[in-house]
Amino acid sequence: MNGNMNKHLIEKGFQQVLEGIGFENLDAETREEVISNTPSRMAKAWIEWLDGMNHTESFVDELLSKSFPETSIGILSYKDIEFHSFCEHHLAPMRGKINVAILPALDEEGRGIATHGLSKVPRVIKVYSQRLSLQERLARQIADALFNYIDPKPEGVYVVLHHVNHDCMTSRGAKAHADGTCQAEARGVFLDPSRRNEAYQMWSL
Ligand SMILES: [Zn+2]
């Protein structure tokens, strides 16, 4: 077991998938190698790809609750953080980039009072993206986590997933080759369109 995951069960499942596929075009020796070893390789890989499923909300809360006293009055922004995830409908890769804007908590005179560690946001993105998910939920979970768990609570958070490519859409079914889809979630002050524009200005630098 790795966290909540049962490697043996995953392996058994992949074995059946491979048997179902059949591999009639392979010679007996190669087929034997694939049937005997691929399921355990697949289970190992999938456990790694879905590692975010082993992390609870309290893990993310703890990650974001440490802050450093610092006065800054501006928006902190991140641009084009890459993510890799898997859609829960087909277990097909879903990948893209994420922009994040955070306006930290302000004191009564409007000065920022604290900052979280810069590396924490990419780590949070990793926790939520290394799961079976959907782009809507991924955007919502990242925005909610940053807004609710950064301590002291930020004035606002804006998360934009962009250039998201879904293999289940591009390589089968609709076979739609677009430049990717987008998904945005705003919290706090970023519900105001003029604050969102500030974020877009920073991202266009
Ligand atoms: Zn899908």
Give a short summary of the structure.
The protein has 2 domains: 7-49, no CATH class; 54-203, GTP Cyclohydrolase I, domain 2 (2-Layer Sandwich). The chain is built from 7 helices and 7 strands. The protein has helices at 7-21, 28-49, 57-65, 120-129, 135-149, 167-170, 193-203; strands at 67-69, 76-87, 93-103, 114-116, 132-133, 156-166, 181-188.
Q: What does the secondary structure layout of this molecule look like, with pairings?
A:
Elements (H helix, E strand, L loop, with lengths): L6 H15 L6 H22 L7 H9 L1 E3 L6 E12 L5 E11 L10 E3 L3 H10 L2 E2 L1 H15 L6 E11 H4 L10 E8 L4 H11 L2
Parallel strand pairs: 2-5
Antiparallel strand pairs: 1-4, 2-3, 3-6, 6-7
Helix pairs in contact: 1-2, 3-5, 4-5
Can you give a write-up of this model?
The protein is of the alpha+beta class and 205 residues long. The chain has two domains: 7-49, no CATH class; 54-203, GTP Cyclohydrolase I, domain 2 (2-Layer Sandwich). Helix content is 42%, strand content 24%. It has helices spanning 7-21, 28-49, 57-65, 120-129, 135-149, 167-170, 193-203; strands at 67-69, 76-87, 93-103, 114-116, 132-133, 156-166, 181-188. A five-stranded mixed beta sheet has the order 5-2-3-6-7, with helices on both faces. The protein has a two-stranded antiparallel ribbon with strand order 1-4. The chain binds zinc ion. Zinc ion (ZN) binds at residues 87, 89-90, 92, 166, 168.
